[in-house]
Amino acid sequence: MFIGRERELDTLNRLYASNKFEFTVIYGRRRVGKTALINQFIRDKNAIYFMGVESNARQNLENFSRSILEYRTGIETESAFLSFQAALEYVFRLSEKERLILAIDEYPYVARSDKSLASTLQLLIDKYKDNSKLMLILCGSSMSYMEDHVLAYKAPLYGRRTAQMKILPFDFAETCRYFKNFSDADKALIYGIAGGTPQYLLQMNDNLSIEDNIKNTFLNPSSALFEEPENLLKQEVREPALYNAIITAIANGSTRLSEISGKVGEDTNVCSTYVKNLAALGIIRKETPYGEKASRKTIYVIEDNLFRFWYRFVPENNSIIARGAADLAYKRIAPFLSDYMGKVFEEICKQYLWKLLLAGKCPVQFSSLGRWWGNDPKIKQQTEIDILAEQDKNIALFGECKWTNEKVDLGVLETLVKRSELFPYQHKYFYLFAKSGFTKGCMDRAKEMGNAALVRYEDMFRA
Predict the structure, then answer these.
(1) Is 456 helix (H, G, I), strand (E, B) or coil?
(2) String of b and e for 90-111 (b: at least 16 CB within 10 Å)?
(3) Distance between CA atoms of 193 and 205, rounded to whole angstroms?
(4) Which of 347, 389, 423, 446 is within CB 3.0–4.6 Å of 369 for a Cys-Cys bond?
(5) 269-273 contacts, C-beta under 8 A, 24 or more apart
(6) What would the pLDDT profile of 122-145 be if each residue is shown by its tens digit?
(7) Can you state the angle between helices 240-251 and 228-236, rounded to 10 degrees?
(8) Which strands make up the sheet holding 134-140, listed edge to edge?
(9) Regarding the domain delimited by 363-462, which CATH topology (the fold level of the hierarchy) does it fall under?
(10) What Rg, from alpha-carbon coordinates, does the chain have?
(11) Please, which residues have CB within 8 angstroms of residue 147's CB and are 6 or more apart in sequence?
């Protein structure tokens, strides 16, 4: 079942239709659906598909040769080209006569096994590109390798590509397309625990309850997801133990660098390097209060929902899970799920506002949005605003998100308005988002104001 990626497929098909040499770089984290995207794109086209393996150059060359010769003859063969240059040159010559796609998946494995491969590709691209109808696709899961050795200015292939795609996890709306049988609320919960990574979503069963899905995956030592975060780290980094400790610290509320350092027992300079690497992998992200580019208030949050859920709940219950006590482990997790979903709901609301903006339905034409936190001098306390976005120095949007079973009352709206007074915008718009709707007092006041929108989750979901 292939879902989504319409924009990426449209881009690839547009490049294919040019009927001239094209070179596309596709990269992104493991499990995000890069291979599925490529296979969907090439399924009805003349294409040679080759996936590199973590082995030596000889093994990769044999596999590459087999892919080429099988395309030409339709028969599996043990014959092999003498070198990657000979194999690639053969493909380039084929493409002088016909439109042809060459997709090299897990390119970093192949390039590491043969250090001259990038230079060989550079040579052949420069030699054949003017007369070639080849569409070359290089794909890789090692984001640092693809960025440093394929896309970077000093890389041999720099300047040769005609397009690049960083494949990201699905957003909430795309994730929902996987599941027809979950309730609206359960779709949010699944997004909160599995994120938008296709391979993780495939492990979820919408014929079961959220409780059973959590038990069958995160609380089951034999499931594919039980050790997924740790295994992914082992593939990407050299010292997974410290990375594990850092992510666990962030998941449990140590969000400032000094707090993380104290929690894991390492110097802040050491932790800073590891944190940057985790950010490059898309596992965590740096966050500053909206509108403050460099700030002492900088915190770090876990970007990927599956990682956030796993590190928040699995390690502390590991001993129980190992003994097969999934029911007991879930009972310990369940009371914290609503609180956990608060940040997830904030992200869903942000995506909704982007959707409104792109549809021309948002009263504030923002270019970015985020969370704000800081000191309120009137009450001399720290305060925060879930969503803040400005159009310019005069117009801004303020949002509050509530994932609770109670209806949001007038006090929440009044508090948001009061917090907005910390900012000098002349024109302010207010958005309240609620899982369970609003009290009559809140709705009446919003109607009086004229610049306040009350959005129920179920309405937002169907918008």
Answers:
(1) strand
(2) ebbebbeeebbbbbbbbbbbbb
(3) 13
(4) 389
(5) 271/246
(6) 999 999 999 999 999 999 998 888
(7) 130
(8) 47-51, 100-105, 134-140, 22-27, 163-166
(9) Trna Endonuclease; Chain: A, domain 1 (3.40.1350)
(10) 25
(11) 27
Q: Which residue has the tokens 């209806």?
A: 407
- Distance in angstroms (rounded) separating the CA atoms of residues 87 and 122: 14
Element (H, E) at 322: helix 318-322
Query: Are the beta carbons of 146 and 140 closer than 8 angstroms?
Result: yes
Cβ 103 vs Cβ 47: under 8 Å = yes
Q: What pLDDT was estimated at residue 398? A: 98
The kind and range of the H/E element at 396 are strand 395-402
Domains 173-341 and 363-462 share a fold: no
- Side-chain half-sphere CA neighbours of 56 within 13 A: 1
What is the fold of 173-341? Arc Repressor Mutant, subunit A (1.10.10)
Q: Which residue has the higher pLDDT, 78 or 68?
A: 68
Query: What pLDDT, in 10s, does the model give residues 312-369?
Result: 999 999 999 999 999 999 999 999 999 999 999 999 999 999 999 999 999 999 999 9
Nearest-CA neighbor of 147 among 69, 138, 384, 67?
138
Q: CA 382, 387, 393: angle at the middle one, nearest 5?
A: 95
Nearest-angstrom CA–CA distance, 92 and 98: 10
Domain range summary for the chain, segments of one domain joined by +: 6-166, 173-341, 363-462
On whether the pTM is more than 0.85, the answer is yes
Pair type for strands 134-140 and 370-376:
unpaired
Residue 116's identity, in one-letter code, is S
Closest CA to 20 of 123, 122, 96: 96
Q: Answer for the pair 348, 341: CB distance below 8 angstroms, yes or no.
A: no
**CATH class, 6-166 region:** alpha beta
Task: Read off the pLDDT band of 75 (50, 70, 90).
Answer: low
Average pLDDT of the chain is 93
